[in-house]
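Q: I'm writing a short explainer about Chaperone protein DnaJ for a general audience and would like to include a description of its predicted shape. Could you first generate the structure from this sequence?
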Amino acid sequence: MAEREWADKDYYADLGVSSSAGHDEIKRAYRKIARENHPDKKPGDKAAEARFKRAAEAYDVVGDEKKRKEYDEFRAMIAHGGFGGTGFPPGGFRTSTQGANGFNVNDIFGQGGGFSAEGGLGDLFGDIFGGRGGGRQRASSRSRRASRGADVETQITLDFREAAKGTTLPLQISGEAPCATCHGSGSRSGEKANCPECDGTGYTNEQRGAFGFSAPCAKCQGTGEVIEDPCTTCSGTGTVHRTRSITVRIPAGVIDGQKVRLAGQGEAGPNGRPSGDLFVTVHVRDDAVFTRKGDDLEVTVPVSFAELALGDTVTVPTLDSPVRVKIPAGTRDGRTLRVRGRGINGGDLLVTVEVNVPTHLDAAATSALRTYAQAERESGFDPRADWEGARR
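A: Of course. Here's the predicted structure. Afterward I'll give you a sentence or two in plain language.
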């Protein structure tokens, strides 16, 4: 998400934490919200779904150290009257460093105080106004802020149990990768020179009346550097198109349709700039035995009438080794028994017992069952007594 889209977002409020919260507290808050509002746990609940999405978006920003720093700087600028016209001096900016009413332009663009030029508010205003807007910056700083490689999206399909337990798998990705000849620099010697057009600043200035405007240098694309000995393999771009293999770790508990982000695994940036990200959309196949409800694992186990009436212990499958579950005497058909900690990511195993009625009985079993039925009637048991009362 671009910085300018953060203006109406309060990600700390979306996670229910303060802006001074540590990373672990933010992570715990996100997991709690995600667990309580997961679409699998509250199917059809639009409010819970919206809460889940807001928390996921918030964690993507404040859960990432670099993004959180940019977000906090942006919020601080807004709090001091940044966008919207409330924080700028009447009559606009002057061409001198010191503006009207003692307003210092460099205070906003990273040279006056509070924020550094690198990764700070200068970047933000540069994005909006199309240039750097403030004092001249060195090309080495700007190189780290230059555009990165493209993001890449792909899709995979996992078995239910792979998604529940997590897995690691290889992926083939085609796209721009660092040139092996020049190691991604674009230069045969690996050296770059200051751009002669902008003198290494990365932007050019133009004076229009009382105002000065800046724009990215067309010769160096705003990097402040040029390559004088282009690599013959990549023609000076620093990247070549090829297919590469990477290993992707899918975390335990991923749900159908969820995207997994792998930072820096997208296409390589030109001339050694940062790589983009890889987004893997995960599809999950249904399982013949298990379903899930949030982090709880659900399984239906067929049992006999005798096991429910007399009580018994049955073997139940899990994602790992089977467990023994005790059925109390007199258990009703359809009752759900809970086994703690044998679900997904510490969730529970929910075992629903379901009577399996035999379709064929031999003579001995039929005789025994008739004897039991007679004894049942004589004891006064009526299976429809409560049902008949409920109908009234």
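A: For your explainer, you could say: Residues 372 and 378 are 10 Å apart (CA to CA).
Q: Perfect, that's easy to follow.
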